[in-house]
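Please check the following for our workbook:

***
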Amino acid sequence: MKNLQAPKEYWQLDNVEKNKIVNQCGPDEPLNHFVPNHLLGLNVAESCNVHDFMFSKAKNSDELKQADRVFLANLMTQIKNNPSSVSIWRKVLAYIYFGAVRIYSWFQRKNT
């Protein structure tokens, strides 16, 4: 996707490999169905997938934090590249998604 940040390894994955690692937006099953892959009509699944990939490859808390920062940056890039009358609300939702992944990362660090 245009202008999204991601490790080069992410872009080199084929769909079969990618689908083993990523699940779009939201946690693993069954809760995944409760988290939309869009922010008021803007599909952000690719930003979520990049985050899933980086999160799965993280070896320490700094790399988990970096995955979360890239996630927010990618969401903001997608919002900026798709201007809309609801862009401000998309940004609000992006920060909510970011807050959710930060909380999840915190729990992951506590359990490692």
Remarks:
- Residues 8-110 form a domain with the Phospholipase A2 fold (CATH 1.20.90).
- The chain has a mean pLDDT of 90.
- The longest helix spans residues 87-110.
